[in-house]
């Protein structure tokens, strides 16, 4: 029973964070600068996820050639910058990651 | 603009989620395994995936349950861990304002990092169009279904698949996010935004409950806005809407 209440509480707070901005902000008459600021959400949030995943995959900062996340991440950034092609970025990134782990034994 | 139908949008949503699904598989399996070995019942473990559907928050909750932390604290923690979704919602909202509640409620329930990343890219590149909501729902339902199946696999297999963390599938998400983010860096404010967000995220990674991520995102957004207004000086604001790409 207490499990059910815990799940209900977690469900309500999660929905309570996800739903309101998604459903309401588009309908409000907010000033332009607000919507210009929103353009920075994707690069800001995604970079905030990517950077620790590359630089500290196991917790502590790991800047070395044995860190396959860092090596393949740099390769992915390079391909993405060069070709601006998402699928190619993913394929090259995964290939470098898996090969690097085999080669370096990470 | 090319002709779209609900079906083409739905299929595109499924297709574009494939790398995200690959990346989520080990997380789902490990969550199921960690939760049941930590003392949560199999039913409650699957129930958490079914009704809460929030990967990071579920992991943290499973850890807190194993430590015997009171439910109130776990619920509060869930709220904090999920704060970034409010940013996702705000970012998507201008594209969804024409939709009725029967779409917006499931969209809110099913919002994840992965669906946000893939969908905002689609909408920014092509607009939402008459059928763009089918893209979102396909992406979200694919993620949801996969999460349920992987949770179940984790519950059933328990410790035997703990090595899933080392399969390397998780890099698929990193590579996808890189492939989405790098092309967004079309001008100096965007570059400033990503640099500030990235450096802050690394420095603040030790903060609990994903607060480092939230702080990094907010500082990145603030830095981008500041860099843009600095660059513009006193010029009219109109000129900036699409950056200088």
What's the helix and strand layout?
The complex is a heterodimer of chains A (106) and B (245).
Chain A: H1 2-24, H2 32-38, H3 41-55, H4 68-83, H5 86-104
Helix pairs in contact in A: 4-5
Chain B: H1 6-37, H2 42-51, H3 55-66, H4 71-81, H5 84-96, H6 101-109, H7 113-126, H8 132-157, H9 171-181, H10 188-203, H11 211-232
Helix pairs in contact in B: 1-3, 1-7, 1-8, 1-9, 2-8, 3-4, 5-7, 7-8, 10-11
Describe it for me?
The complex is a heterodimer of chains A (106) and B (245). Chain A is extended. Chain A has 106 residues and is mainly alpha-helical. Chain A contains five helices and no strands. Chain A has helices spanning 2-24, 32-38, 41-55, 68-83, 86-104. Chain A has a domain at 31-104. The mean pLDDT of chain A is 94. Chain B has 245 residues and is mainly alpha-helical. Helices cover 72% and strands 0% of the residues of chain B. Chain B contains eleven helices and no strands. Chain B has helices spanning 6-37, 42-51, 55-66, 71-81, 84-96, 101-109, 113-126, 132-157, 171-181, 188-203, 211-232. Chains A and B meet through α1, α2, α3, α4 and α5 of A and α2, α3, α4, α5 and α6 of B.
Keywords:
heterodimer; A: 106 residues; mainly alpha; 5 helices; 0% strand; extended; B: 245 residues; globular; disordered C terminus
Mean pLDDT of chain A: 94
Residue share in β-strands of chain B:
under 5%
Major beta-sheet overview of chain B: none
Major interchain interface with per-chain residue totals:
A-B, 71 and 94 residues
Average of per-residue pLDDT values of chain B: 91
**Radius of gyration of chain B over all CA atoms, rounded:** 19 Å
What's the total helix number of chain A? 5
pLDDT < 50 stretches of chain A? none
Main sheet of chain A, how many strands, which sense, barrel?
Answer: none
Number of strands of chain A: 0
Which overall shape of chain A is indicated by the principal axes computed on the Cα atoms?
Answer: extended
Low-confidence stretches of chain B: 236-245
Helix-strand makeup class of chain A: mainly alpha
């Amino acid at each position: 029973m207490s499990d059910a209440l815990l799940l209900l509480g977690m469900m309500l707070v999660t929905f309570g964070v996800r739903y309101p901005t998604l459903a309401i902000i588009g309908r409000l008459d907010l000033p332009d600068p607000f919507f210009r600021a929103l353009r920075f959400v994707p690069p800001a949030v995604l970079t905030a996820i990517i950077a620790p995943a590359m630089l500290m995959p196991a917790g502590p900062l790991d800047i070395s050639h044995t860190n396959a996340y860092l090596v393949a991440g740099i390769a992915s950034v390079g391909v993405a910058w060069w070709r601006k092609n998402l699928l190619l970025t993913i394929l090259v990134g995964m290939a470098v990651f898996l090969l690097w782990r085999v080669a370096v034994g990470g | 603009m090319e002709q779209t139908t609900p079906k083409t949008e739905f299929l595109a949503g499924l297709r574009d989620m494939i790398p995200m699904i690959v990346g989520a598989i080990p997380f789902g399996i490990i969550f199921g395994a960690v939760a049941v070995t930590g003392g949560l019942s199999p039913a409650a473990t699957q129930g958490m995936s079914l009704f809460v559907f929030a990967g990071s928050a579920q992991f943290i909750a499973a850890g807190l349950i194993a430590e015997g932390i009171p439910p109130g604290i776990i619920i509060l923690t869930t709220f904090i861990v999920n704060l970034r979704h409010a940013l996702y919602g705000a970012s998507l909202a201008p594209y969804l304002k024409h939709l009725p509640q029967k779409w917006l409620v499931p969209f809110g329930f099913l919002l994840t990092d992965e669906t946000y990343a893939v969908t905002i890219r689609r909408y920014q590149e092509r607009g939402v169009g008459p059928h763009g909501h089918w893209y979102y729902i396909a992406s979200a339902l694919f993620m949801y279904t996969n999460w349920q199946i992987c949770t179940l696999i984790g519950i059933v297999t328990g410790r035997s698949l703990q090595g899933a963390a080392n399969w390397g599938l998780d890099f698929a998400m990193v590579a996808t996010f890189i492939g989405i983010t790098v092309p967004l860096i079309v001008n100096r404010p965007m570059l400033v935004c990503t640099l500030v967000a990235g450096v802050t995220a690394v420095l603040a990674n030790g903060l609990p409950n994903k607060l480092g991520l939230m702080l990094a995102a907010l500082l990145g957004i603030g830095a981008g806005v500041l860099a843009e207004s600095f660059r513009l000086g006193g010029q009219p604001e109109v000129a900036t809407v699409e950056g200088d790409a």
